[in-house]
Amino acid sequence: MSETFILGLLLLISPLVLLLLSIKRTNSNKLNLPPFPPKLPLIGNLHQLGSLPHRSLRSLSIKHGPIMLLQLGQVPTLVVSSPEIACEIMKTQDIIFASRPPSKIMATLLHGSDDIAFAPYGEYWRKARKLCVTHLLGTKMVQCFQHAREEEVECMMAIIYETSQSYVNMSSILNMFATNIVTRVVSNDLFRDQEKKSMLHMLIEENSALVGAFHPADFFPLIGWLDIFSLDWRGKRNAKRWDNILEEVINNKAKRLKDDVSHNNNRDFVEVLLSLENDPSVDFPFTRGNIKAILMDMFAAGIDTSYITLEWSMAELVRNPKVMKKLQDEVRGNARGKDMIRDEDLSKMSYLKSVIKEVMRLHPPVPLLLPRELTESSELSGYKIPKNTRIIINAWALARDPKFWEEPDEFKPERFMDSLIDFKGNDFQFIPFGAGRRICPGMNFAVHNVELALANLVNRFEWSMPENLSREDLDMHETPGLTSRKEESPNLVAKFLAVA
């Protein structure tokens, strides 16, 4: 966050905030609040977030403790970097910590309709999430799309083979794979329309940029009416484009469903949601706006998680050739001359699963879990936590806590081989998908995509750095934003191996 911006913001909001402070002041000593770093007038601790907040907040927690109360603008924000306290929040007291704070940009993008990821905790969220888990993201649906998943992996492999004479831009190829599989599952119509699919990619990228940007209105509600960085304008523009493309897809699908008597079991997500729109068993308001909002969730979360994890996986494997060799030995030993790894082969590949866990430990797709909001006053570790406090759980810091992990900054998949630690929300030192009521409902879908793709990538190709570059030259920095994408795409050389 630049000094110019901070100074400008101070000048802009100082009269309003000083007025607010003159009306209401909080005596933190009497309330026994958690420890907090020194803060500046008006902006509080905003200047300490830096461009990579998960790293900055971990540094602050080392100095001030695993539970800190920051003042981000006008918003009191509890930052948690301890697995024990994370367990208290997401398990023991989960129900009062399960809501979401309001987000101006999400309200704009979703036209005021509730999705699942950002919706506040309540009856709509509970029933909509259950509906999606039951009808869209359950084990049965994941299995239904096995053929589509395998076809998209085959397509990706063919493209890599065609370009393997030079180097392969892994960001491009992996993003294409993730976009294709998610688009195919969500809407076959979009998958078949290249022009709309290209537009969809642009919309998802803009959504990611907007959601990950700094929004003054979220930290200074008094100036929420100001569109300082044109983010509100950009959000409205993107929301309109989303609405246009989804409305067309939904309307076309609805017309065809009227004449469809086949009851095809392999329906895409749009078909499933439309079938539920007027289903009498759906006992809560479920509108066309909610369908669009849920579809936006599916696109964003489904694509980013798979793409980011695969990209970091390939980077870590190339940097660690012994791990790559061990993984290739396992995969090729199970493949036994097959040119394609199938879903049914994956259960035998324990080291593959350990590699993916280790990648997600070091590079969780969302390093700071989506913020929560406390709905009633509570107590954590002997400290009072006031109602409406915003909660940030630093999943990145939890997964590098030296109390729980030996050599936490090193890439060592072996740590998971004889361990029961998993990412399903029961081990709070390792929660890349969150935990409790708010755990990511698409976890199984994403992991299946990653396992199948990575197994095939290491089975059929030998991977190396381009000529004149060593593996130490591979950039391992992440970009600022909501998700932890690699800053630079790994450009790798792929040598195709014929099936013996």
Automatic annotation (TrEMBL):
Q: Which organism is it from?
A: Asparagus officinalis (Garden asparagus)
Family the entry assigns: Belongs to the cytochrome P450 family.
Q: Does the keyword RNA-binding apply?
A: no
Name of the protein in question: Cytochrome P450
PANTHER family reported in the protein's UniProt record: CYTOCHROME P450 FAMILY 71 PROTEIN (PTHR47955), OS01G0543600 PROTEIN (PTHR47955:SF14)
Which residues make up the binding site for heme? C440
- Which cofactor does the UniProt annotation name? heme
Cite the entry's keywords alphabetically. Answer: Heme, Iron, Metal-binding, Monooxygenase, Oxidoreductase
